Amino acid sequence: MKNLLKIMFVDDEVNVLRGMRNSYDWDALGFTIVGEAGSAALALSLARQNQPDVVITDICMDGKDGLTLISELKEQNPATEVIILSGYPDFGYAKSAIEKGAFAYLLKPLKNAEFFETLARVRAKILEEHSQTASLFLSQLLQLSLYTQEGISSLEAEYGIRLPSGSFFLSVIRPEQPDPSVGRESCKKLLAFLRKNYTAPSRLLLCRKGGEHPHITALIFCGSVPVQTTLCAQLEEVGKNFSSQTGLSLSIGVSSLFKEITSIRDAYLEASWALQQKTVRPDDQLFFFRSSSGESSGHAGQPSAMLSPAEQKQLLAGIRTLNRPLTEQILNQYFSRLNSTKSINWDMLKNSLAELAVQILSTACATPEMTKLIFGRKPLPAVEILSMTQLSEMQEYIRRLTGRIFDHAGLIRQIPAQLSAPVRDVQNFIFLNYPFHISVDSIADSLHMNRFYLMRLFKQETGCTINEFLTRHRVEMACEFLKCRECSISEAGANAGYPDSNYFCKVFKKQTGLLPSEYRSRQSQEELCSTDSAQK
């Protein structure tokens, strides 16, 4: 059986330990024995050294009882599951054990059916937790700002995951559903099915993605192209079984084989773009990425000409908050990098920029009607960018797209039509200029209006002062930036118009009741809970 979990026994009777070791086929049950201890003290030492997933312990031992051992094991490693064995059918003992975090309380002599059922339940619980941790790890791995070995090692330490060394490829597996909400539900079913049925000998990590095209991302380690081909054939067969059971069609995109994990973002882009072959081969399920020359494009160590996940998140945050300085800064840096890149895979670049344009549009325009109001028609970046032949054309297309969005800030922010023209102008000015140092005087000067008349009119129509409106909007935008993992607290404040981080914290606390760090922590907890519940 694959994925053997580590188990340890604790009892002060040697015969009991021997019986636990020899009476059961632990491999068949899904466990490997990593320690036996005749005392609580030795148990803690072995647990610290071997990190068992499960500890089976007697309730009564010389020197320290099992209840105390539960507490100390949990303090040492909260993920360790403890099963108590006891010869005393005492409800108080059982209640205390469960309250201290024991998984189960079983009575001696053990009944095989009950014991095996308990082991199966604890194994399922641990594997589910491991899968969720792996999914979160892979999700964060794909969003790193800099793909360095140091950054990846730090992430491994944070999640308690050690990636294998050697070559890898990445697969994107997508249920073909026109409705994203239905697609997300299909992904949940597919994720559970793959965990159960796709037992690749190399390490496999999965994470469910949201958005317009929900999909599964699989990171698979293997030593050679022939092995990759075999693993992909197995994946395709599992996909066909899933389709036959659910009636859902799948598309599986596969990247080249890469040598360095620092190239994982390029592998993800390749697997995603491989899926585009579906349009010309609609009856196929498995699609391998090939460069325009027909060869695999996975070359470790080459700098990527693509927008990094961190840059993309900050750029979209700039669009969402109508922060022109931040948006232009990210685009300028990205385009400068593109212009200095000597060798570019044009197919990959065009698809990347087309995808970026679509994301910019969907971020800025909540409805098709708004898109039409801003652009006069529905932009078609997948067609327009793919037809271009010059890099400068593509860059100008993206700039025109963002420029139109900023020019229609009032429409995007849905300024109430019943407000007078001067008040609408004030709000529009704030929406576009909040990152800068602005005041009532500078607003009045820019609009060529008397400041006192403007202040009185604004208060009369909105119920708040211009400064109150500005502060509220800046804090709302700061909240958006704080949701961006790659944006520091001081950067979030500066992006929202508060270059002094101390003053920013003071204003934010007054408006929200929380410090920026507390708000970010709460958002992270809510996101984690949301991810956990979505995967159950």
From TrEMBL:
One of its GO terms (biological process) is phosphorelay signal transduction system. PROSITE patterns: HTH_ARAC_FAMILY_1, HTH_ARAC_FAMILY_2, RESPONSE_REGULATORY. InterPro entries: CheY-like_superfamily, Homeodomain-like_sf, HTH_AraC, HTH_AraC-typ_CS, Sig_transdc_resp-reg_receiver, Tscrpt_reg_AraC-type_HTH. It comes from the Bacteria. Pfam families: HTH_18, Response_reg. SMART domains: HTH_ARAC (SM00342), REC (SM00448). Keywords: DNA-binding, Phosphoprotein, Transcription, Transcription regulation. The keyword DNA-binding applies. Residues 424-522 form the HTH araC/xylS-type domain. Residues 6-123 form the Response regulatory domain. The modification 4-aspartylphosphate is found at residue 58. GO terms for molecular function: DNA-binding transcription factor activity; sequence-specific DNA binding. Gene3D superfamilies: 3.40.50.2300, Homeodomain-like (1.10.10.60). Signal peptide: none annotated. May play the central regulatory role in sporulation. It may be an element of the effector pathway responsible for the activation of sporulation genes in response to nutritional stress. Spo0A may act in concert with spo0H (a sigma factor) to control the expression of some genes that are critical to the sporulation process. This is Stage 0 sporulation protein A homolog. It comes from Candidatus Eisenbergiella merdipullorum. The lineage of its organism: Bacteria, Bacillati, Bacillota, Clostridia, Lachnospirales.
